Each structure stands twice: as structure tokens, then as C-alpha cells.
Amino acid sequence: MLNVITPALHCQQLNYSIAGKCIFNDLNLTLDEGEFLAVLGPNGAGKSSLFKAITGELKPTSGTIFLNGEMRHQINMSEIAKTLAVLPQSASLSFAFQVIDVVLMGGLQADCGQAKVHVLAETILREQEIEHLKTRAYPTLSGGEKQRVHFARVLLQLAVGNKNKPQVLLLDEPTAALDINYQHQLLNSAKHLAQTGVAVIAVLHDLNLAAKYADRIILLKEGTICANGSARHVVTTDNIRDVYGYESTVINNAEFSHPIVM
Prior knowledge:
alpha/beta, Rossmann fold, 6-stranded mixed beta sheet, 4-stranded antiparallel beta sheet, 9 helices, globular, translocase, ATP hydrolysis activity, ATP-binding
């Protein structure tokens, strides 16, 4: 008898329209445990709406979202917080919390003691190279520093979450405010999480970053998946022309593990 593997995340026939405009139509998406999926597409393709539908911020017109085989809307918020961690494109926080306090917000649902949560937070700050920001007031940080702090927060949320089920990490344009060094640092961390079993889905704009880090890439155009597969199958001149209307040069060289877009 074959063992059927339940996806960590499954979006089934999602439909969403606003003001008479179809944002996505019968969209199906599956994300497996330990997989790093990048979702790309031009402005208005439906990337952000799909992200918000998965997080629960937006309710699709029809269709169902499953987390580890359970309907998302039937899971209580406390359990979702232990399984699903979300890094939005920007997070508004105006109170003068210290950085360590913002990171510790990721441990609010922890079942372990607060001493363990603090140790984990300190470790994550050190690993993400933001330990020097620990006592800084959050509003005084640059945009990039704030993004790195919130990434540390979601890392803590995963660290104290439910390890009995595959966890899911959602990243919405996580590199937008970061310089090139920290773009790679963040995506390296996300890749490492995937290698430990976390299912990672990232909305990205940079085809080269997606090709380098993602196991699979989806190209969205007008709410429809136009291409779905490995970087070498998806990142092609034909697909880029069809989806973005841009005449690109794609270099596939044996010296690189992924295609390079110019």
C-alpha cells in the first residue's frame, strides 16, 4: 500500500475578484515539506493577493486552503501560529520597543518556558548578525534593519512552534529593503530552513535570486500560473518574454548551478 504524502500547503481552485476584476482564477498550488518555492510575476499578477489569501488576510471568492491536510479556516489561530510563520513586505510598528522585545514577540505562542525562549532569541540574533541592535529602539532602525529584525522574529516563531507537523514559512518580497549581502544572507537562512524540513514560499521580484535559491519557481501572469518547475525549466527567454514582455538573455553555463538572467 502506497503512503500518500500530505502537502504542507495546498491551495485548491482559488478564485478571487475585486471591483469586477479577476485577480486569480482556479489557481492550484502545492508546497511540500522541505521545499523552497518562489512565486514571481509582474506587478498586478496576483502575487500579493495569493500571499494574503494564504495568511488569512484576504478571503478568496471560492476555493480552499489546506495546511497539513486540514482546512485553514477550521484551524484555531493559536495552532496556526505554531505552524505558519509570516514575514510581510513591511510591518508597521511605531512603539519604541527594543529590538529584543520585537524578536521575542515571535515566542508568544511558545509552550516551552520563557528562559528557553530568551536563549533561542539570543541565538537567532547572533546567527542573523543583529546582536548589536538588541537594545536599539525599533523606530530608530533603517528599513533594512527592521526587515532583519522581523525575520529574526519569525525564525523564533518557527523555533518554538509545533515540530510534530511540517511548518510553513511565508516571505513576501523579503529582500526588497536589503542590500545585496543581506539579501543572500536571508535567502540562505530560508534555504537552510527548507533543508531542515520547513516548507518555504517566497514572493520575489528578482529572477536571479529565485533561480539561485528556490527548488521550484512559479510564474504568475494575470492570476494564472504560466510556468511551474525548476529554474532551468522556468527561467527561459520565452517565459520571460511571455510573462514580463521583456527581451532577455538567459545564460546556462556549466560553471553555475542555475541560469543567469541579463
